């Protein structure tokens, strides 16, 4: 999961484009990009599009449902689970308990649709409420086999805490949002799942997107969400481990093997111990896709 492209669920035209964008995941959105009046129509379109594409598309298909506080989530699931999406994105997730609650609902809808238990993954957005940010550790306590990763959002959180903006005059996220970002990386690592970076909304600014991707990859995120097809190729590029990084990781793994798997060794005058080995193994797993 390097690139995850949001597509408004009520737009057949954009949905078709989304599947030819090269994104690893197409997220059919039933939440913020669809008006309340359009939700029923978007559910019908989403189900039809998933059914039409799920066999042939190279991308995984996720659906972002409406959060539990809206009372719309059950109808979203009832409409789309029969079409068998690969996963559900849960916005405004408050803690691991919300993941458990969604897993319970999925279990019922999967059984009713004749799909095996656990067929549908869950990707929560964990920083859209203050409670969510403060509960980042809870995803490890309730680690669920359906949990595909954690991702974060800065727009709804600004509204939640009453911040007028989430970036300063230089374009950097302000403290509350940097904390939310950091807690996403820590919460995901604690739960043993992928950390996925949030969207970059200025979709014509490719330099800005690149800078944000590079920073995210450096800090431990392994993918990023997109809102426009033009962002996908760049995200895929930055989150694909480079040939040099792969070659170096191979050297590290080989050195440990040749030395009889010790705790620590030296390569080219530098110390490497178990965390370096684990990091190298993880990078190779990511490079395999
Ligand atoms: N998925 C698929 N196709 C998309 C797309 C997306 N997210 N965003 C744009 N496109 C398509 C457009 O339909 C257009 O195709 P067309 O010329 O055949 O009609 C083409 O790409 C170029 O689009 P462009 O003119 O540059 O942008 P726009 O003004 O049409 O759309 C947005 C801008 C922001 C409205 C649009 O990118 C969008 O809907 N993004 C997703 C929003 C979303 O899901 N938000 C929720 C998560 S934060
Ligand atoms: Mg939102």
Helix-strand layout with pairing:
Layout: E1 3-8, H1 12-19, E2 25-29, H2 39-53, E3 60-64, H3 73-80, E4 87-90, H4 96-113, E5 121-124, H5 130-134, H6 138-141, E6 149-151, H7 155-161, H8 175-191, E7 194-197, H9 206-219, E8 223-226, H10 232-239, H11 243-258, E9 264-267, E10 270-273, H12 274-288
Parallel strand pairs: 1-2, 1-8, 2-3, 3-4, 4-5, 6-7, 7-8
Antiparallel strand pairs: 9-10
Helix pairs in contact: 2-3, 9-10, 11-12
Provide a descriptive summary of the structure in words:
The protein has 289 residues and is an alpha/beta fold. Helices cover 47% and strands 15% of the residues. An eight-stranded parallel beta sheet has the order 5-4-3-2-1-8-7-6. Helix 11 (243-258) packs across helix 12 (274-288). It is globular. The model has no long low-confidence stretch (mean pLDDT 95). The protein binds coenzyme A and magnesium ion. Magnesium ion binds next to helix 7.
Kindly summarize this structure in a few lines.
The chain has helices at 12-19, 39-53, 73-80, 96-113, 130-134, 138-141, 155-161, 175-191, 206-219, 232-239, 243-258, 274-288; strands spanning 3-8, 25-29, 60-64, 87-90, 121-124, 149-151, 194-197, 223-226, 264-267, 270-273.
Mean pLDDT: 95
Helix content: 40-55%
Strand order of the largest sheet: 5-4-3-2-1-8-7-6
Radius of gyration: 20 Å
Find the count of extended strands (DSSP E, 2+ residues).
10
Q: How many angstroms does the end-to-end distance come to?
A: 8 Å
Provide the structure class. Answer: alpha/beta
Shape: globular
Helix count equals: 12
Main sheet overview = 8 strands, parallel
The sequence of SSEs as H and E is EHEHEHEHEHHEHHEHEHHEEH
What small-molecule ligands were found? Answer: coenzyme A, magnesium ion
Strand content: 5-15%
Low-confidence stretches: none
């Amino acid at each position: 999961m390097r690139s995850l492209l949001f597509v408004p669920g009520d737009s057949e035209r954009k949905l078709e484009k989304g599947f030819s964008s090269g994104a690893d995941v197409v997220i059919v959105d039933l939440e913020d990009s669809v008006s309340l009046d359009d939700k029923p129509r978007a559910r019908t379109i989403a189900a039809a599009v998933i059914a039409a594409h799920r066999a042939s598309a190279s991308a995984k298909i996720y659906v972002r449902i409406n959060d539990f506080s809206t009372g719309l989530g059950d109808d979203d699931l009832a409409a789309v689970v029969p079409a068998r999406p690969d996963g559900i994105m849960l916005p405004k997730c408050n803690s691991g308990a919300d993941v458990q609650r969604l897993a319970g609902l999925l279990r019922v809808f999967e059984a009713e649709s004749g799909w095996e238990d656990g067929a549908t993954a869950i990707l929560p957005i964990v920083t859209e409420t203050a409670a969510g940010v403060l509960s980042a550790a809870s995803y490890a306590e309730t680690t669920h086999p359906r949990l595909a990763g954690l991702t974060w959002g800065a727009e709804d959180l600004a509204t939640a805490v009453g911040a007028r903006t989430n970036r300063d005059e230089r374009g950097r996220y302000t403290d509350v949002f940097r904390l939310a970002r950091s807690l996403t990386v820590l919460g995901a690592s604690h739960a043993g799942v992928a950390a996925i970076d949030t969207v970059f909304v200025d979709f014509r600014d490719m330099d800005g997107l690149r800078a944000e991707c590079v920073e995210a990859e450096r800090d431990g995120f392994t993918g990023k969400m997109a809102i426009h097809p033009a962002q996908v190729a760049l995200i895929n590029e930055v989150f694909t481990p480079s040939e040099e990084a792969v070659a170096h990781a191979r050297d590290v793994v080989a050195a440990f093997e040749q030395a009889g798997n010790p705790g620590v060794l030296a390569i080219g005058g530098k110390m490497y111990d178990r965390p370096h080995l684990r990091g190298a193994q993880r990078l190779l797993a990511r490079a395999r896709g």
